[in-house]
Amino acid sequence: ELEPLDKDEL
Amino acid sequence: MNVFRLSGDVSHLLAILILLMKIWKTRSCAGISGKSQILFALVYTTRYLDLFTSFISPYNTAMKVFFIASSYATIYLIYLKFKATYDRNHDTFRMEFLVLPVLVLAFVVNHDFTPLEILWTFSIYLESVAILPQLFMVSKTGQAETITSHYLFALGMYRALYIVNWVYRYYFEGFYDLIAIIAGVVQTVLYCDFFYLYVTKVLKGKQLTLPA
């Protein structure tokens, strides 16, 4: 899963 | 990155370019809600603060910078350069009715109680309803220019394609983000009435008009 502050989606 | 996510991003990019081109070529922002554009600028500004804290990819950074820059450019065109053509008498939706409840919700329902995460959540919730002043304006005037309809269609399709992307990611990556999914569904549902009119009227060569 993505880290909370690592936002790949726009 | 899957094909649905990429199509969603392209649709989003296309929507913004259609809007900028419409305003620039016709030298007019008639029929465009400045309030929706202010809300979108607020959405991108609060969501993409992670530009300062983490690097994901050149694609990610470029898109984020473009969304922020184009939203402020749109506001500049509406409120300064072509302000004489801005239809303010029909742009009467009260922004605080959207911003304040969404702000409260972001503080209550979020993944992590940290400033950046709350701002990200706020932006996701705000984006889901940011188009309401624009849809309100269309319903108030009872019509929209065809180019404005294309803009709204591309903007609506963007989140609809993201939903397909989330279904794909859930099945193939086991990843899901309930906040984004629920807000994305709300956002897409708000466009349904417009999608119907777009398919039944605009695609058949008629201008988008609402029954009186």
Automatic annotation (TrEMBL), chain B:
Keywords: Endoplasmic reticulum, ER-Golgi transport, Membrane, Protein transport, Receptor, Transmembrane, Transmembrane helix, Transport
Domain of life of the organism encoding this protein: Eukaryota
Major localization listed first in the record, in broad terms: endoplasmic reticulum
Protein name: ER lumen protein-retaining receptor
Natural source organism: Priapulus caudatus
InterPro entries found in the cross-reference section: ER_ret_rcpt
This protein's record includes keyword Cytoplasm: no
Family of this protein: Belongs to the ERD2 family.
Subcellular location: Endoplasmic reticulum membrane
Parts of the chain that traverse the membrane: 62-80, 92-113, 119-139, 151-172, 178-199
Source taxonomy: Eukaryota, Metazoa, Ecdysozoa, Scalidophora, Priapulida
Pfam families referenced in this protein's UniProt entry, alphabetically: ER_lumen_recept
Membrane topology, as annotated: Multi-pass membrane protein
